[in-house]
Amino acid sequence: MQVLSVTPEIFPLIKTGGLADVTGALPVALAGKGVAMRTLIPGYPQVMDAFKKKKPVHHYPLLQGGKASVHAVQIAGLDLFVLDAPHLFDRPGGPYGNAIGADWPDNWRRFAALSQVGGDIAGGAVSGYQPDIVHAHDWQSAMTLAYTRYGKAVGTPSMITVHNLAFQGQFGAGIFGELGLPAAAMALDGVEYYGGVGFLKAGLQAAWAITTVSPTYAQEIRSPEFGMGLDGLINMRSVDLYGIVNGIDTEIWNPETDKHLVSNYTAKTLKARHPNRTAVEDRFNLDRDDSPIVCVISRLTWQKGMDILAAVVDGIVARGARLAILGSGDAGLEGAMLAAAARHRGRIGVVVGYDEALSHTMQGGCDAIVIPSRFEPCGLTQLYGLRYGCVPVVARTGGLADTIIDANEAAVSAGVATGFQFAPADSGALLHAIRRLVEAHANPTIWTSMQRQGMKADVSWDKSAQKYLELYRLLLSKRAV
Ligand code: ADP
Protein backbone atom coordinates (compact mmCIF):
# COMPACT_ATOMS: atom_id res chain seq x y z
CA MET A 1 0.00 0.00 0.00
CA GLN A 2 1.41 3.39 -1.03
CA VAL A 3 0.43 6.37 1.10
CA LEU A 4 1.38 9.95 0.31
CA SER A 5 1.61 11.99 3.50
CA VAL A 6 1.72 15.78 3.16
CA THR A 7 2.90 17.82 6.12
CA PRO A 8 4.53 21.14 7.02
CA GLU A 9 6.72 19.51 9.72
CA ILE A 10 8.51 16.22 10.20
CA PHE A 11 10.89 15.08 12.94
CA PRO A 12 13.92 15.15 12.92
CA LEU A 13 14.12 17.76 10.14
CA ILE A 14 11.73 20.46 11.22
CA LYS A 15 9.62 20.57 14.35
CA THR A 16 7.56 23.11 16.24
CA GLY A 17 5.26 20.66 18.02
CA GLY A 18 3.76 17.22 18.32
CA LEU A 19 2.67 17.19 14.65
CA ALA A 20 6.30 16.69 13.63
CA ASP A 21 6.73 13.78 16.03
CA VAL A 22 3.68 12.08 14.55
CA THR A 23 4.56 12.57 10.89
CA GLY A 24 8.12 11.42 11.58
CA ALA A 25 7.12 8.31 13.53
CA LEU A 26 4.15 7.06 11.52
CA PRO A 27 6.07 6.05 8.36
CA VAL A 28 8.50 4.03 10.47
CA ALA A 29 5.71 2.33 12.44
CA LEU A 30 3.74 1.55 9.26
CA ALA A 31 6.72 0.21 7.31
CA GLY A 32 6.57 -3.04 9.26
CA LYS A 33 2.90 -3.40 8.38
CA GLY A 34 3.25 -3.33 4.62
CA VAL A 35 2.60 0.38 4.12
CA ALA A 36 5.09 2.46 2.11
CA MET A 37 4.62 6.04 3.21
CA ARG A 38 6.24 8.88 1.31
CA THR A 39 6.09 12.33 2.79
CA LEU A 40 5.92 15.63 0.93
CA ILE A 41 7.48 18.51 2.88
CA PRO A 42 8.49 22.09 2.09
CA GLY A 43 12.13 22.71 1.22
CA TYR A 44 12.94 24.91 4.21
CA PRO A 45 16.67 25.77 4.45
CA GLN A 46 17.40 23.00 6.97
CA VAL A 47 15.66 20.46 4.74
CA MET A 48 17.51 21.54 1.58
CA ASP A 49 20.80 21.44 3.52
CA ALA A 50 20.13 17.85 4.60
CA PHE A 51 20.61 16.30 1.15
CA LYS A 52 22.90 16.66 -1.82
CA LYS A 53 21.10 18.01 -4.87
CA LYS A 54 19.76 15.29 -7.11
CA LYS A 55 17.87 15.42 -10.34
CA PRO A 56 14.37 16.71 -9.58
CA VAL A 57 11.52 14.34 -10.36
CA HIS A 58 9.16 17.14 -11.31
CA HIS A 59 9.48 20.80 -12.40
CA TYR A 60 7.19 23.81 -12.13
CA PRO A 61 8.10 26.74 -14.39
CA LEU A 62 5.71 28.78 -12.22
CA LEU A 63 4.29 27.75 -8.85
CA GLN A 64 2.71 30.53 -6.79
CA GLY A 65 5.03 33.20 -8.15
CA GLY A 66 8.30 31.39 -8.85
CA LYS A 67 10.11 28.37 -10.19
CA ALA A 68 9.87 25.17 -8.20
CA SER A 69 10.87 21.54 -8.34
CA VAL A 70 10.24 18.33 -6.45
CA HIS A 71 13.09 16.12 -5.24
CA ALA A 72 12.69 12.49 -4.21
CA VAL A 73 15.17 11.84 -1.41
CA GLN A 74 15.81 9.72 1.64
CA ILE A 75 16.79 11.59 4.77
CA ALA A 76 17.10 10.05 8.23
CA GLY A 77 15.49 6.87 6.94
CA LEU A 78 12.41 8.75 5.69
CA ASP A 79 11.23 8.61 2.06
CA LEU A 80 10.55 12.20 1.15
CA PHE A 81 9.40 14.42 -1.64
CA VAL A 82 10.91 17.83 -0.98
CA LEU A 83 9.29 20.86 -2.60
CA ASP A 84 12.14 23.17 -3.54
CA ALA A 85 10.52 26.57 -4.03
CA PRO A 86 13.06 29.17 -2.82
CA HIS A 87 10.67 32.10 -3.22
CA LEU A 88 8.35 30.42 -0.70
CA PHE A 89 10.54 28.45 1.67
CA ASP A 90 14.15 29.66 1.56
CA ARG A 91 13.87 32.04 4.51
CA PRO A 92 15.43 32.42 7.94
CA GLY A 93 13.21 32.00 11.00
CA GLY A 94 10.62 29.31 11.63
CA PRO A 95 8.41 27.35 9.24
CA TYR A 96 5.50 29.76 9.66
CA GLY A 97 7.06 33.05 10.63
CA ASN A 98 10.15 35.20 10.99
CA ALA A 99 12.73 35.09 13.77
CA ILE A 100 10.52 37.11 16.13
CA GLY A 101 7.56 34.83 15.50
CA ALA A 102 5.40 37.03 13.24
CA ASP A 103 3.56 34.91 10.65
CA TRP A 104 4.76 35.24 7.06
CA PRO A 105 2.09 37.31 5.27
CA ASP A 106 2.12 34.91 2.31
CA ASN A 107 1.53 31.76 4.36
CA TRP A 108 -1.60 31.08 2.35
CA ARG A 109 0.51 31.05 -0.81
CA ARG A 110 3.25 28.90 0.72
CA PHE A 111 0.88 26.20 1.93
CA ALA A 112 -1.45 26.38 -1.05
CA ALA A 113 1.65 25.61 -3.12
CA LEU A 114 2.58 22.66 -0.90
CA SER A 115 -0.97 21.37 -1.16
CA GLN A 116 -1.20 21.86 -4.90
CA VAL A 117 1.96 19.81 -5.33
CA GLY A 118 0.43 17.14 -3.06
CA GLY A 119 -2.63 17.05 -5.31
CA ASP A 120 -0.44 16.91 -8.42
CA ILE A 121 1.62 14.00 -7.08
CA ALA A 122 -1.60 12.19 -6.15
CA GLY A 123 -2.66 12.78 -9.76
CA GLY A 124 0.46 11.11 -11.15
CA ALA A 125 2.79 14.11 -11.67
CA VAL A 126 5.85 12.09 -10.60
CA SER A 127 6.33 9.33 -13.13
CA GLY A 128 6.46 5.87 -11.63
CA TYR A 129 4.73 6.94 -8.42
CA GLN A 130 1.03 6.55 -7.75
CA PRO A 131 -0.22 6.69 -4.16
CA ASP A 132 -3.27 4.65 -3.18
CA ILE A 133 -4.16 7.10 -0.42
CA VAL A 134 -3.43 10.74 0.36
CA HIS A 135 -3.03 11.72 4.01
CA ALA A 136 -2.87 15.41 4.98
CA HIS A 137 -2.08 16.99 8.34
CA ASP A 138 -3.47 20.24 9.79
CA TRP A 139 -4.39 23.39 7.87
CA GLN A 140 -1.03 23.78 6.16
CA SER A 141 -1.53 20.70 4.02
CA ALA A 142 -5.33 20.40 4.25
CA MET A 143 -5.84 22.00 0.83
CA THR A 144 -4.12 18.95 -0.67
CA LEU A 145 -7.50 17.28 -0.37
CA ALA A 146 -9.22 20.13 -2.21
CA TYR A 147 -6.62 19.93 -5.00
CA THR A 148 -7.15 16.17 -5.04
CA ARG A 149 -10.91 16.46 -5.13
CA TYR A 150 -11.02 19.14 -7.84
CA GLY A 151 -8.09 17.73 -9.83
CA LYS A 152 -6.96 14.61 -11.64
CA ALA A 153 -6.78 12.54 -8.46
CA VAL A 154 -10.48 12.95 -7.70
CA GLY A 155 -11.06 9.25 -6.99
CA THR A 156 -8.13 8.88 -4.58
CA PRO A 157 -9.13 8.02 -1.01
CA SER A 158 -8.03 10.71 1.39
CA MET A 159 -7.61 11.34 5.08
CA ILE A 160 -6.94 14.41 7.16
CA THR A 161 -5.54 14.30 10.65
CA VAL A 162 -6.33 17.25 12.87
CA HIS A 163 -3.58 17.80 15.40
CA ASN A 164 -5.06 21.04 16.68
CA LEU A 165 -8.37 22.54 15.57
CA ALA A 166 -7.36 25.95 16.91
CA PHE A 167 -5.17 26.59 13.88
CA GLN A 168 -7.40 26.75 10.80
CA GLY A 169 -5.73 28.80 8.08
CA GLN A 170 -8.53 31.25 7.30
CA PHE A 171 -7.92 33.84 4.61
CA GLY A 172 -9.85 36.49 2.69
CA ALA A 173 -11.89 35.64 -0.41
CA GLY A 174 -9.42 37.69 -2.46
CA ILE A 175 -6.90 34.83 -2.56
CA PHE A 176 -9.30 32.40 -4.21
CA GLY A 177 -8.50 33.54 -7.75
CA GLU A 178 -4.84 32.65 -7.19
CA LEU A 179 -5.39 29.14 -5.90
CA GLY A 180 -5.92 27.62 -9.33
CA LEU A 181 -9.08 25.83 -8.27
CA PRO A 182 -12.26 25.74 -10.39
CA ALA A 183 -14.87 28.41 -9.59
CA ALA A 184 -17.19 25.71 -8.26
CA ALA A 185 -14.78 25.15 -5.35
CA MET A 186 -15.73 28.51 -3.84
CA ALA A 187 -18.86 27.04 -2.31
CA LEU A 188 -20.23 26.03 1.05
CA ASP A 189 -19.33 22.39 0.41
CA GLY A 190 -15.92 23.38 -0.98
CA VAL A 191 -13.28 25.76 0.34
CA GLU A 192 -15.54 28.69 1.22
CA TYR A 193 -15.75 29.53 4.91
CA TYR A 194 -17.67 32.54 6.24
CA GLY A 195 -17.14 34.42 3.01
CA GLY A 196 -13.39 33.71 2.88
CA VAL A 197 -11.26 30.66 2.19
CA GLY A 198 -10.77 28.14 5.00
CA PHE A 199 -7.88 25.76 4.42
CA LEU A 200 -8.64 23.35 7.26
CA LYS A 201 -12.34 23.62 6.54
CA ALA A 202 -11.70 22.66 2.92
CA GLY A 203 -9.78 19.59 4.05
CA LEU A 204 -12.47 18.54 6.52
CA GLN A 205 -15.04 18.86 3.78
CA ALA A 206 -13.10 16.91 1.16
CA ALA A 207 -11.51 14.14 3.25
CA TRP A 208 -12.92 10.64 2.98
CA ALA A 209 -12.00 10.18 6.64
CA ILE A 210 -11.17 12.65 9.39
CA THR A 211 -8.99 11.61 12.27
CA THR A 212 -7.87 13.44 15.31
CA VAL A 213 -5.28 12.39 17.80
CA SER A 214 -7.38 11.01 20.64
CA PRO A 215 -10.90 9.57 21.06
CA THR A 216 -11.85 12.16 23.71
CA TYR A 217 -10.75 15.09 21.52
CA ALA A 218 -12.72 13.55 18.62
CA GLN A 219 -15.83 13.81 20.81
CA GLU A 220 -14.96 17.21 22.27
CA ILE A 221 -14.59 18.93 18.88
CA ARG A 222 -18.23 18.13 18.14
CA SER A 223 -19.22 20.66 20.81
CA PRO A 224 -19.26 24.46 20.45
CA GLU A 225 -16.83 24.76 23.37
CA PHE A 226 -14.03 22.85 21.59
CA GLY A 227 -15.23 23.00 17.98
CA MET A 228 -13.76 26.45 17.28
CA GLY A 229 -16.57 27.26 14.87
CA LEU A 230 -16.14 24.03 12.92
CA ASP A 231 -18.31 21.85 15.19
CA GLY A 232 -21.27 22.10 12.76
CA LEU A 233 -19.22 20.68 9.90
CA ILE A 234 -17.56 18.10 12.13
CA ASN A 235 -20.94 16.89 13.35
CA MET A 236 -22.10 16.60 9.76
CA ARG A 237 -19.09 14.41 9.06
CA SER A 238 -19.23 12.48 12.33
CA VAL A 239 -19.65 9.03 10.73
CA ASP A 240 -16.24 9.53 9.13
CA LEU A 241 -14.59 10.88 12.29
CA TYR A 242 -12.09 8.78 14.25
CA GLY A 243 -9.83 9.36 17.26
CA ILE A 244 -6.46 7.59 17.30
CA VAL A 245 -4.08 8.33 20.15
CA ASN A 246 -0.50 9.18 19.20
CA GLY A 247 2.34 6.91 20.14
CA ILE A 248 5.87 8.03 20.85
CA ASP A 249 9.23 6.96 19.50
CA THR A 250 10.21 4.47 22.18
CA GLU A 251 13.80 4.29 20.94
CA ILE A 252 14.45 8.02 21.17
CA TRP A 253 12.49 8.09 24.43
CA ASN A 254 14.02 5.18 26.30
CA PRO A 255 15.37 5.83 29.82
CA GLU A 256 17.53 2.72 29.56
CA THR A 257 19.58 4.10 26.65
CA ASP A 258 18.83 7.85 26.48
CA LYS A 259 22.14 9.68 25.95
CA HIS A 260 20.74 12.92 27.33
CA LEU A 261 20.45 11.38 30.77
CA VAL A 262 23.24 11.57 33.32
CA SER A 263 22.14 8.15 34.55
CA ASN A 264 20.15 5.51 32.68
CA TYR A 265 17.59 3.36 34.47
CA THR A 266 14.67 0.97 34.14
CA ALA A 267 11.49 0.36 36.14
CA LYS A 268 13.54 -1.97 38.32
CA THR A 269 16.33 0.54 39.00
CA LEU A 270 14.36 3.70 39.78
CA LYS A 271 16.96 4.82 42.35
CA ALA A 272 19.28 5.43 39.39
CA ARG A 273 17.04 8.38 38.49
CA HIS A 274 18.65 10.30 41.34
CA PRO A 275 21.68 11.71 39.46
CA ASN A 276 19.29 13.07 36.82
CA ARG A 277 17.31 14.73 39.58
CA THR A 278 20.49 16.35 40.88
CA ALA A 279 21.27 17.55 37.34
CA VAL A 280 17.83 19.19 37.18
CA GLU A 281 18.36 20.81 40.61
CA ASP A 282 21.65 22.24 39.39
CA ARG A 283 20.36 23.43 36.02
CA PHE A 284 17.31 25.14 37.57
CA ASN A 285 19.09 26.41 40.71
CA LEU A 286 16.78 24.43 42.95
CA ASP A 287 17.53 23.49 46.55
CA ARG A 288 18.73 19.94 46.95
CA ASP A 289 16.15 18.16 49.08
CA ASP A 290 13.61 15.34 49.03
CA SER A 291 10.52 17.34 48.11
CA PRO A 292 8.96 16.48 44.74
CA ILE A 293 10.15 18.35 41.66
CA VAL A 294 7.24 19.02 39.35
CA CYS A 295 8.24 20.03 35.84
CA VAL A 296 6.71 21.88 32.93
CA ILE A 297 7.92 21.28 29.35
CA SER A 298 5.61 23.28 27.19
CA ARG A 299 4.75 26.12 24.94
CA LEU A 300 3.85 28.90 27.36
CA THR A 301 0.36 29.64 26.09
CA TRP A 302 -3.26 29.96 27.12
CA GLN A 303 -4.11 26.62 25.48
CA LYS A 304 -1.55 24.90 27.68
CA GLY A 305 -3.12 26.51 30.76
CA MET A 306 0.11 28.25 31.67
CA ASP A 307 -1.81 31.21 33.10
CA ILE A 308 -3.70 28.74 35.31
CA LEU A 309 -0.36 27.47 36.58
CA ALA A 310 1.16 30.95 36.96
CA ALA A 311 -1.77 31.93 39.19
CA VAL A 312 -1.01 29.20 41.76
CA VAL A 313 2.77 28.93 41.84
CA ASP A 314 2.86 30.42 45.35
CA GLY A 315 0.35 27.81 46.53
CA ILE A 316 2.36 25.01 44.91
CA VAL A 317 5.51 26.09 46.74
CA ALA A 318 3.52 26.44 49.98
CA ARG A 319 2.38 22.83 49.61
CA GLY A 320 5.98 21.68 49.48
CA ALA A 321 6.63 21.01 45.79
CA ARG A 322 9.37 22.56 43.67
CA LEU A 323 8.86 23.64 40.05
CA ALA A 324 11.25 23.31 37.08
CA ILE A 325 9.81 25.14 34.09
CA LEU A 326 11.14 24.85 30.52
CA GLY A 327 9.22 26.70 27.89
CA SER A 328 8.77 29.67 25.65
CA GLY A 329 5.89 31.45 24.05
CA ASP A 330 3.68 34.24 25.30
CA ALA A 331 5.91 37.08 26.56
CA GLY A 332 3.57 37.86 29.47
CA LEU A 333 3.66 34.24 30.64
CA GLU A 334 7.44 34.04 30.29
CA GLY A 335 7.61 37.15 32.49
CA ALA A 336 5.19 35.68 35.04
CA MET A 337 7.24 32.49 35.32
CA LEU A 338 10.53 34.40 35.66
CA ALA A 339 8.96 36.60 38.35
CA ALA A 340 7.80 33.48 40.20
CA ALA A 341 11.35 32.11 40.11
CA ALA A 342 12.68 35.39 41.46
CA ARG A 343 10.12 35.28 44.32
CA HIS A 344 10.90 31.68 45.22
CA ARG A 345 14.62 31.18 44.81
CA GLY A 346 15.54 27.54 45.24
CA ARG A 347 11.92 26.43 44.91
CA ILE A 348 11.10 27.49 41.35
CA GLY A 349 13.54 27.49 38.43
CA VAL A 350 12.81 28.66 34.89
CA VAL A 351 14.62 28.15 31.60
CA VAL A 352 13.08 30.16 28.78
CA GLY A 353 13.67 28.54 25.41
CA TYR A 354 13.34 25.30 23.49
CA ASP A 355 15.85 22.64 24.56
CA GLU A 356 15.26 19.07 23.39
CA ALA A 357 18.19 17.63 25.40
CA LEU A 358 17.12 19.33 28.62
CA SER A 359 13.57 18.08 28.12
CA HIS A 360 14.91 14.52 28.25
CA THR A 361 16.93 15.18 31.41
CA MET A 362 13.84 16.64 33.05
CA GLN A 363 11.66 13.64 32.22
CA GLY A 364 14.42 11.43 33.60
CA GLY A 365 15.01 13.41 36.78
CA CYS A 366 11.82 15.19 37.85
CA ASP A 367 9.19 13.43 39.94
CA ALA A 368 6.17 14.69 38.07
CA ILE A 369 5.14 16.67 35.01
CA VAL A 370 2.17 19.03 35.13
CA ILE A 371 -0.01 19.64 32.05
CA PRO A 372 -2.94 21.95 32.88
CA SER A 373 -4.15 22.34 29.26
CA ARG A 374 -7.54 23.87 28.54
CA PHE A 375 -7.70 21.55 25.56
CA GLU A 376 -5.19 18.95 24.40
CA PRO A 377 -5.79 17.03 21.17
CA CYS A 378 -3.39 14.29 22.33
CA GLY A 379 -0.35 15.64 24.11
CA LEU A 380 3.01 13.91 24.04
CA THR A 381 4.74 15.09 27.17
CA GLN A 382 2.47 12.99 29.42
CA LEU A 383 3.43 9.93 27.33
CA TYR A 384 7.14 10.69 27.76
CA GLY A 385 6.37 11.19 31.46
CA LEU A 386 4.80 7.72 31.69
CA ARG A 387 7.77 6.14 29.97
CA TYR A 388 10.28 7.90 32.23
CA GLY A 389 8.55 7.42 35.57
CA CYS A 390 7.85 11.17 35.71
CA VAL A 391 4.28 11.01 37.00
CA PRO A 392 1.82 13.09 34.92
CA VAL A 393 -0.56 15.56 36.58
CA VAL A 394 -3.05 16.48 33.87
CA ALA A 395 -6.25 18.35 33.14
CA ARG A 396 -8.98 15.85 32.26
CA THR A 397 -9.34 16.75 28.59
CA GLY A 398 -8.57 15.28 25.14
CA GLY A 399 -5.68 12.86 24.98
CA LEU A 400 -4.71 13.61 28.57
CA ALA A 401 -8.00 12.06 29.71
CA ASP A 402 -7.41 9.03 27.45
CA THR A 403 -3.86 8.18 28.48
CA ILE A 404 -3.57 8.77 32.25
CA ILE A 405 -5.27 6.65 34.92
CA ASP A 406 -6.15 8.86 37.87
CA ALA A 407 -4.87 7.88 41.30
CA ASN A 408 -8.29 7.67 42.92
CA GLU A 409 -8.67 5.29 45.85
CA ALA A 410 -9.91 2.38 43.73
CA ALA A 411 -7.12 2.74 41.15
CA VAL A 412 -4.46 3.08 43.83
CA SER A 413 -5.60 -0.01 45.71
CA ALA A 414 -5.83 -1.97 42.47
CA GLY A 415 -2.30 -0.75 41.64
CA VAL A 416 -3.30 0.62 38.21
CA ALA A 417 -2.96 4.39 38.77
CA THR A 418 -0.46 6.18 36.55
CA GLY A 419 -1.01 9.85 37.41
CA PHE A 420 -3.40 12.56 38.57
CA GLN A 421 -6.27 14.06 36.64
CA PHE A 422 -8.11 17.23 37.59
CA ALA A 423 -11.14 19.07 36.28
CA PRO A 424 -12.11 21.68 35.44
CA ALA A 425 -8.91 23.21 34.09
CA ASP A 426 -8.65 25.93 36.71
CA SER A 427 -6.29 26.97 39.46
CA GLY A 428 -8.33 25.51 42.34
CA ALA A 429 -8.52 22.05 40.80
CA LEU A 430 -4.83 22.16 39.83
CA LEU A 431 -3.79 23.08 43.34
CA HIS A 432 -5.90 20.26 44.75
CA ALA A 433 -4.15 17.82 42.39
CA ILE A 434 -0.75 19.10 43.54
CA ARG A 435 -1.80 18.47 47.13
CA ARG A 436 -2.73 14.87 46.21
CA LEU A 437 0.61 14.52 44.45
CA VAL A 438 2.62 15.74 47.44
CA GLU A 439 0.75 13.30 49.70
CA ALA A 440 1.31 10.37 47.34
CA HIS A 441 4.97 11.27 46.88
CA ALA A 442 5.44 11.04 50.64
CA ASN A 443 4.41 7.36 50.46
CA PRO A 444 7.22 5.56 48.60
CA THR A 445 5.16 2.38 48.09
CA ILE A 446 2.35 4.22 46.33
CA TRP A 447 4.71 6.49 44.42
CA THR A 448 6.96 3.73 43.13
CA SER A 449 3.95 1.69 42.12
CA MET A 450 2.60 4.63 40.09
CA GLN A 451 5.96 5.17 38.40
CA ARG A 452 6.27 1.49 37.51
CA GLN A 453 2.69 1.26 36.31
CA GLY A 454 3.27 4.24 34.00
CA MET A 455 6.49 2.74 32.68
CA LYS A 456 4.57 -0.44 31.83
CA ALA A 457 1.95 1.40 29.77
CA ASP A 458 2.13 0.76 26.03
CA VAL A 459 2.91 4.18 24.59
CA SER A 460 4.54 2.85 21.42
CA TRP A 461 3.23 3.49 17.92
CA ASP A 462 2.40 -0.12 17.31
CA LYS A 463 -1.27 -0.15 18.35
CA SER A 464 -1.98 3.26 16.85
CA ALA A 465 -0.23 2.46 13.57
CA GLN A 466 -2.42 -0.64 13.37
CA LYS A 467 -5.50 1.60 13.70
CA TYR A 468 -4.30 3.87 10.88
CA LEU A 469 -3.68 0.79 8.77
CA GLU A 470 -7.23 -0.46 9.39
CA LEU A 471 -8.61 2.93 8.39
CA TYR A 472 -6.51 2.98 5.22
CA ARG A 473 -7.90 -0.47 4.39
CA LEU A 474 -11.44 0.75 4.99
CA LEU A 475 -10.87 3.67 2.62
CA LEU A 476 -9.46 1.38 -0.05
CA SER A 477 -12.53 -0.83 0.25
CA LYS A 478 -14.71 2.28 -0.26
CA ARG A 479 -12.74 3.12 -3.40
CA ALA A 480 -13.39 -0.37 -4.66
CA VAL A 481 -17.13 0.21 -4.17
P1 ADP B 1 2.01 20.78 21.18
O1 ADP B 1 2.30 20.05 19.91
O2 ADP B 1 0.60 21.28 21.28
O3 ADP B 1 3.00 21.85 21.51
P2 ADP B 1 2.57 18.22 22.44
O4 ADP B 1 2.59 17.80 23.88
O5 ADP B 1 1.75 17.39 21.51
O6 ADP B 1 2.13 19.74 22.40
O7 ADP B 1 4.04 18.21 21.87
C1 ADP B 1 5.00 19.11 22.32
C2 ADP B 1 6.37 18.58 21.94
O8 ADP B 1 7.32 19.64 22.01
C3 ADP B 1 6.88 17.52 22.87
O9 ADP B 1 7.77 16.68 22.14
C4 ADP B 1 7.66 18.33 23.92
O10 ADP B 1 8.64 17.59 24.59
C5 ADP B 1 8.26 19.40 23.06
N1 ADP B 1 8.49 20.68 23.75
C6 ADP B 1 7.59 21.65 24.04
N2 ADP B 1 8.19 22.72 24.60
C7 ADP B 1 9.50 22.41 24.68
C8 ADP B 1 10.66 23.12 25.13
N3 ADP B 1 10.57 24.34 25.63
N4 ADP B 1 11.86 22.50 25.03
C9 ADP B 1 11.96 21.26 24.52
N5 ADP B 1 10.92 20.55 24.06
C10 ADP B 1 9.70 21.12 24.13
From TrEMBL:
Pathway: Glycan biosynthesis; glycogen biosynthesis. Keywords: Glycogen biosynthesis, Glycosyltransferase, Transferase. It is an enzyme of class 2 (transferase). The keyword Transferase applies. CDD domains: GT5_Glycogen_synthase_DULL1-like (cd03791). GO terms for molecular function: alpha-1,4-glucan glucosyltransferase (ADP-glucose donor) activity. Its EC number is 2.4.1.21. It holds the Pfam family Glycos_transf_1. InterPro entries: Glyco_trans_1, GS/SS, Starch_synth_cat_dom. ADP-alpha-D-glucose binds at K15. Residues 284-440 form the Glycosyl transferase family domain. Transmembrane segments: none annotated. The keyword Glycosyltransferase applies. It catalyses: [(1->4)-alpha-D-glucosyl](n) + ADP-alpha-D-glucose = [(1->4)-alpha-D-glucosyl](n+1) + ADP + H(+). It comes from the Bacteria. Residues 2-235 form the Starch synthase catalytic domain. Synthesizes alpha-1,4-glucan chains using ADP-glucose. Belongs to the glycosyltransferase 1 family. Bacterial/plant glycogen synthase subfamily. NCBIfam families: glgA, PRK00654.1-2. This is Glycogen synthase. It comes from Mesorhizobium ventifaucium. The lineage of its organism: Bacteria, Pseudomonadati, Pseudomonadota, Alphaproteobacteria, Hyphomicrobiales. The gene is glgA.
